[in-house]
Structure formats: structure tokens, C-alpha cells
Predict the 3D structure of the following.
Amino acid sequence: MTANGGLSASEFKSLASLVYDRTGINLSESKKPLLTSRLQKRLRKHGLSSYGDYYDFVIGHHEEVEELIN
């Protein structure tokens, strides 16, 4: 799914699970629009075209996990 197409349910679940695993913070489905908005900036910064690509990027870059959590 491209960033322009929105954050899919599976992408949201993957990112929310990552946040939960790292922080214990449970992101409910109601936070999806907020997460989408904030992640669009991160995708642009790193030249990524999808939330799935961003997830893969986050997994490989510890410092980006911190940005995601913040």
C-alpha cells in the first residue's frame, strides 16, 4: 500500500505491535489517523513510498524506532 493510499489494517497492526512491544503502549484503532498523519512526514524524510517500507526500515534502524515512539 502506498502512503497516498493510506495505512492498511495490516500495516497499522504491525506498527502498533512494534510500539507495544517496545513501550507497552497500546495503540487502538482510533489512533490510526494520528499515526498515519505523523508517519507521512517520516516516509517523506526517508524517501519511502509505503508504510510497509517504513516498517521494514524501522526494524533495521534503532534510532528510527525512537522517532516512531516519540
Notes: The CA atoms of residues 23 and 57 lie 19 Å apart. The mean pLDDT is 90.
